[in-house]
């Protein structure tokens, strides 16, 4: 997928409606966090920039996720949180980031509400991951992770949300909130494919 194709689909298609209101959420105090959904143009098309967490992390060890984290008291807004975390984790200065805007938020069972911010990053910028926070940078071809037919979903009625998403890429699996954010972006760009998925057996 090229940058121009992505932008055309992103701006011409209405974003899917998402609501986390309801009796299950009324008594839950969610802490606020933000992530950067970074796209980088390469010779083959756009890559989605992800990170793998190190083994020593208290939460999400070894998990593939977006650069991001909880909002600090010094952050003027959640967008600033996403930019700060991307700079801390990937050495990505804000001058190399072209923000497109927020994506729908995603709650997680660790009582955080994740606010994703979609952005392009400079094609030639060299990422410098912090080894204390990032085991490796994972570059996923965007057209592959957005392919609904590659997505596995599982209904889980006992959770506060009712669907878990798993996305295989290059022998690895993206799951949890990261996969849910990617799935929703795929629904936005390709609304006619929303019914496509592979059930987990």
Question: Could you walk me through the main structural features you see in this protein, from its secondary elements to its overall organization?
Answer:
- The protein is an alpha+beta fold and 201 residues long.
- It is 20% helix and 34% strand.
- The protein is built from four helices and twelve strands; from the N terminus they run αββββαββββαβββαβ.
- The strands form two sheets. Strands 1, 2, 3, 4, 5, 6, 7 and 8 form an eight-stranded mixed sheet that branches.
- β1 (31-42) and β2 (45-52) form a beta hairpin.
- The longest helix has 14 residues, at 176-189.
- The radius of gyration is 16 Å and the shape is globular.
What is the element layout, followed by pairings?
Blueprint (H helix, E strand, L loop, with lengths): L2 H10 L18 E12 L2 E8 L11 E2 L1 E4 L7 H13 L6 E6 L3 E3 L3 E10 L14 E6 H4 L6 E4 L7 E7 L2 E4 H14 L8 E2 L2
Parallel strand pairs: 1-7, 9-12
Antiparallel strand pairs: 1-2, 1-4, 2-3, 2-8, 5-7, 6-7, 9-10, 10-11
Task: Give the CA-CA distance, first to last residue.
Answer: 30 Å
User: What is the radius of gyration computed over CA atoms, rounded to a whole number of angstroms?
Assistant: 16 Å
The poorly predicted ranges are: none
Query: What portion of the residues fall into strands of 2 or more residues?
Result: 25-35%
- What is the helix fraction of residues, given as a range? 10-25%
Compute the number of strand runs: 12
What's the SSE pattern? HEEEEHEEEEHEEEHE
């Amino acid at each position: 997928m090229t940058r121009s194709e992505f932008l055309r689909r992103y701006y011409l298609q209405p974003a899917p409606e998402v609501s986390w209101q309801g009796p299950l959420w009324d008594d839950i105090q969610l802490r606020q966090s933000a992530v950067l959904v970074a796209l980088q143009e390469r010779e083959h098309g756009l890559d989605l920039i992800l990170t793998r967490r190190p083994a020593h992390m208290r939460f999400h060890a070894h998990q593939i996720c977006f650069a991001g984290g909880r909002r600090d008291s010094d952050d003027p807004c959640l967008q600033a949180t996403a930019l700060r975390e991307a700079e801390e984790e990937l050495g990505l200065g804000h001058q190399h980031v072209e923000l497109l805007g927020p994506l729908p938020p995603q709650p997680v069972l660790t009582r955080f509400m994740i606010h994703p911010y979609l952005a392009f990053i400079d094609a030639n910028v060299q990422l410098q991951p912090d080894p204390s926070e990032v085991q490796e940078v994972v570059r996923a071809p965007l057209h592959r992770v957005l392919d609904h037919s590659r997505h596995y979903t599982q209904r889980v009625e006992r959770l506060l949300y009712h669907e878990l998403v798993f996305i295989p890429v290059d022998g690895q699996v993206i799951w949890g909130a990261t996969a849910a954010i990617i799935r929703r972006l795929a629904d936005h760009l390709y609304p006619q494919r929303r019914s496509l998925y592979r059930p987990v057996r």
